[in-house]
UniProtKB/TrEMBL annotation:
GO terms for molecular function: dihydrolipoyl dehydrogenase (NADH) activity; flavin adenine dinucleotide binding; NAD(P)H dehydrogenase (quinone) activity. Residues 7-328 form the FAD/NAD(P)-binding domain. The active site is at 450 (proton acceptor). NAD(+) binds at residues 179-186, 271. Its cofactor is FAD. Binds 1 FAD per subunit. It comes from the Bacteria. The keyword NAD applies. Belongs to the class-I pyridine nucleotide-disulfide oxidoreductase family. This is Dihydrolipoamide dehydrogenase. FAD binds at residues 52, 142-144, 313. Disulfide bonds join 43-48. Gene3D superfamilies: 3.30.390.30, FAD/NAD(P)-binding domain, Fe,Mn superoxide dismutase (SOD) domain.
Length: 485
């Protein structure tokens, strides 16, 4: 058994682990990073990048299909070569992973330890059966993994998660996607547009990460117009067909009738769980939340044990790459500079779903505002529909709606939920305004070009300002907006 004494041990070599390692190294050379699996982040290998590659292929098909709306008629049948689609996805995915691995290769070999770590006590880790690490401080950065009902394992290799999709050599004929959240919506719609027969199922009626009932209702209707979606389905049975690489699903359809759907794969997109259950946390004095995750200070990422920090998806806060990177810098910095603990910068919350139309959320959600301010009526909602918004109609992308929220009295912008064209870009503008604690009036003083989709944001803000009684009532045909707005 080898023994290693270090100042900081980082468990995990993904986005959060790599970031925490680099941040801690700014204060001490005595840092080790422990990784049991392959290096390369979730984002690069099986998350944001390969999914966007698949979505990009699907968007190219969709643009051809939309062309007749502009009077342009492509000749001949659209041929989707599944092998070529997946070949590009994998080639580019491997390229992105390669960039991550180049960074890992730059880390000194003595700072990397292969194996799975488990706590022996608050300051001691056992890595597999070969190394004991005595660490003055520890950062947990073990990421997350897909979660789904254990009974689904009976489907064998016909059950897949998003990780598996990006290793396909060809596109299948039919797929049932369970979970209309971020992953399910993105992959389900992309596969549908690429010619795969898709049905997207959920339980409870939730669509995407949305909490605003009106926006969610719009999203549910918009997706149903394109592909089969039942966000609160009743499944009667799901079983592998004996002797075949197929799964039979019987469910009650929208007409209340029993329907059978035969698929090549069942794609589980039913959420993720932090990878903390195999760390031996019971051997520590850490206080855990209801999911068994170490509770941590939002601004310092310090847990109830002052020498243990947590970052990234393992923290069960906001499972997004930019959040993991921010948390990594804070946790690694504090582990390195301990005991001089400092609050780190936590930026305004921003999230996006790369569906079409896109979904995005900024700042406080509608649900959070209802909980915090709803009982006193202390916030108002401004809205705009993109269905008649000028630039959106020009591009035949006029689907969606935006809600912006503002505080009564102060006029401060509190957050937004939306579904619409270029929502990823609109969300950035709104997130910057939110982080700068701008009022709705101050936001309206910013420049808006014509004709752009962003004019829809101005319309919603004007509506909100009027409802906050800080500005005039909306003018139906605004002269400074130009025609079509």
């Amino acid at each position: 058994m080898n023994t290693l004494n270090v100042d900081v041990a980082v468990i995990g070599g993904g986005t959060a682990g790599l970031g925490a390692y680099r941040a801690a190294k700014a204060y001490t050379d005595s840092v080790v990073m422990i990784e049991g699996g392959p290096y390369g982040t979730t984002c690069a290998r099986v998350g944001c990048m390969p999914s966007k590659l698949l979505i990009a292929a699907a968007e190219s098909v969709h643009q051809i299909e939309k062309a007749p709306g502009f009077g342009i008629h492509p000749q001949g049948e659209i041929v989707i070569n599944g092998r070529e689609v997946m070949d590009r996805v994998k080639r580019e995915r491997d390229r992105f992973v390669g960039f991550v691995l180049e960074g890992v290769d730059e880390i000194p070999a003595e700072d990397k330890l292969a194996g799975y770590a488990k706590f022996i006590d608050n300051n001691t880790l056992l890595v597999d059966d070969h190394t004991q690490i005595n660490a003055k401080r520890i950062v947990i950065a073990t990421g997350s993994r897909p979660a789904y009902p254990a009974v689904w394992n009976e489907l064998g290799d016909r059950l897949v998660i998003n990780d598996d999709v990006f290793n396909w050599d060809d596109l299948p004929e039919a797929v049932a996607v369970f979970g209309p959240g971020v992953i399910g919506l993105e992959l389900g719609q992309a596969l549908h547009r690429l010619g795969v027969k898709v049905k997207l199922f959920g339980i409870g009626g939730q669509v995407g990460p949305l909490t605003d009932p009106e926006i969610m209702g719009y999203a549910d209707k918009a997706f149903k117009e394109e592909f089969y979606l039942d966000a609160d389905v009743k499944i009667e049975s799901m079983k592998r067909i004996e002797g075949e690489d197929k799964v039979e699903i019987q469910f009650i359809n929208h007409d209340g009738e029993l329907e059978t759907f035969i698929v090549d794969y069942v794609l589980a997109a039913t959420g993720r769980r932090p990878n903390v259950d195999k760390l031996g946390l019971e051997n520590t004095s850490l206080k855990l939340d209801e999911r068994g995750v170490p509770a941590a200070d939002y601004y310092t990422l310090q847990t109830s044990v002052e020498t243990i920090f947590i970052a990234g998806d393992a923290s069960n806060q906001i499972p997004l790459l930019h959040e993991a990177a921010d948390q990594a810098r804070i946790a690694g910095d504090n582990a390195g500079r301990f005991p001089d603990i400092r609050a780190g910068l936590r930026r305004s919350v921003i999230s996006a779903v790369f569906s079409d139309p896109q979904i995005a959320m900024v700042g406080e959600t509608y649900k959070q505002l209802q909980t915090r301010l709803g009982t006193c009526g202390c916030f108002a909602t401004g809205e705009v529909s993109f269905e008649n918004q000028g630039r959106s109609r020009v591009m035949l992308r006029n689907k969606g709606m935006l809600h912006v929220y503002g505080e009564q009295g102060t006029g401060r912008f509190l957050g937004a939920e939306m579904m619409g064209p270029n929502a990823e870009h609109l969300a950035h503008l709104l997130a910057w305004a939110h982080q700068n604690k701008m009022t709705v009036s101050e936001m309206l003083d910013m420049p808006f070009y014509h004709p752009v989709i962003e004019e829809g944001v101005r319309t919603a803000l004007r509506d909100l300002n009027a409802k906050l009684q800080l500005g005039p009532e909306m003018i139906k045909h605004c002269l400074d907006c130009g025609p079509g707005c």
